[in-house]
Design brief:
Blueprint (H helix, E strand, L loop, with lengths): L1 H29 L6 E4 H7 L4 H8 L3 E5 L5 E6 L12 E4 L2 E2 L14 E7 L1 H8 L7 E6 L6
Parallel strand pairs: 4-7
Antiparallel strand pairs: 1-6, 2-3, 4-5, 6-7
Length: 147
């Protein structure tokens, strides 16, 4: 009976080790898929956009940006499934300061933007807490505070 237990424990440990090594090697070779994107000043200049909202329309295919008939921002959300009950707009962080409203994107001139870092929900909650579960749009301006 004890020989059976020892062999069973050995088999379980072997299977566990094989399972973990396969998962680790797969993630290390392919790299994590964060779902985010970094938009540089050169990309912003090439896009010909006037403000951050237009930059995101041209350079961020993972986001859906909706406007009214006059071109004013109405809604921003991630492509794919979303909730009709919960607000799923990403949090906007401008030079390290969290903005109260995402509509500020239409007021930031594109010429003043150094980079825009778009983070997925998982990455956003890691850096900004649970309120950023819908992702983060992190904007660094050329005149912003040096971090």
């Amino acid at each position: 009976m004890t020989l059976f237990r020892r062999s069973a424990v050995g088999v379980v440990c072997l299977l566990w080790a094989l399972g973990c090594s396969h998962a680790t090697s797969r993630h290390s070779s392919a790299g994590p898929n964060t779902g985010g994107k970094l938009i540089t000043a050169a990309q912003i200049e090439r896009s010909g956009s006037n403000n951050a909202w237009e930059v995101l329309k041209h350079e961020a295919p993972m986001l859906t940006l909706e406007e009214d008939r006059n071109g004013n921002p109405v809604r921003i959300h991630w492509h794919g499934r979303s909730s009709i009950y919960l607000e799923d707009a990403p949090v906007v962080v401008l030079d390290g300061v969290r903005s109260a409203d995402w509509k500020v994107l239409s007021q930031i001139p594109a010429g003043q933007i150094q980079t825009i870092n778009i983070m997925s929900g998982i990455e956003g909650t890691t850096y900004y807490g649970t309120n950023a579960a819908s992702g983060v749009i992190e904007i660094h301006t050329k005149r912003g505070p040096e971090s």
